[in-house]
Task: structure prediction
Amino acid sequence: MARRAPPPPPPPPALVRMRLVAAALLVAMAALFIAARAIGPVHPAVGFVRAFAEAAMVGGLADWFAVTALFRHPLGLPIPHTAIVPRNKDRIGEALAAFLRDNFLVPRVVARRMQTLDVAGAAGRWLAQPAEADSRLRMGTARLFADLLDSLDQERLGGMVKGAIGSRLQAMRAAPLLGQALAAAIARDRHVPVMNSLLRWAGRALSSNEHVIRAMVHERAGSLLRWTGLDETVANRLIDGLDQLLWDMVEDPGHPLRMRVEQGLADLAHDMQHDPEMQARVEAWKLEVIGNPAMQRWLDGLWESARGSLLRLTRDPAAIHNGRLGEALQQLGQTLQSDARLKATLNRLARRATVGTAANYGDSIVRLVSETIRSWDARTITLRLENAVGRDLQFIRINGTIVGGLVGLVLHTLDVLL
Result:
């Protein structure tokens, strides 16, 4: 069953005007012929007018028939070899697809065309100094992208994005990466500020919760200690000792307890890279985190935030050239224009990517064109083609009327002279 294509736009005003002009000219020739026939041979000039009008009317009718027969049956009559476009819709799609395949999607043709294109230079100029024409292009592209984002099924698209991120996270081996990152941080002493911050945080937490420690000591002390007040002394000594221990660990990088913590971190980094049991534990923890509903909600929020940012940029594309991002893009554009080696590399990559796309997906593109046109109903494709070329076809009707009249005038002149 044919699938209706997107509804075609209404006929352009220029096409409507040309149809009216062609029809009016044909009616005028018919009226002129009737008037000349009614007047009769009252003057020799009437014969010339009648011959001109008669031939013009015949030429206009013939061209009207020819133009109309391309798209529909003239007057609705099933005349053979009319309504050519609707009847040959599938052949037109196949011919267009073959034309694309043979003239545009041949790898050597694409490669030869790409040799003359400076993709990197054009991108650099667009980024560094976007011209007014480029601004219009950017605005049009941005609106198209925004409409595309709005038209897509956001729940389904968000599920696809979330599923892709989740699948990527599940496939990623987290333990070796975490182990390498931790080992690199330890080798460069990047862990020292973090450890000091944790020790200071522990000191502040101890100071904020002294009453908890005092209550614990008081509850666990015997009645004799509570009666003598020694429980308070024990609590004070315990708090002071813990506070001094944390302070010493911060101030002394060689503190024995701190060295043991650092050794534990180094062992953890090694085990995450080489110990299968540790790696399995990290992977299990990773899968548990990914499957957590809170993680799923975070991924949903991540997609919504990214989508909102994209929509804001597409609705105000000029904003992308403002601020630090705009400065970075302008600097990138200047580099693309001035660095010949980088420009050559990017142009080569663009050429290879385009040629590879033509080689690998050319047949798929051709098949897509052919199948898309085949799936459209005949009325839609007829209207689209008529809107595209109909104005020139109406000129054929006008020219046919005028040329036919001139031929009739010449023939009548020859008839009179001979």
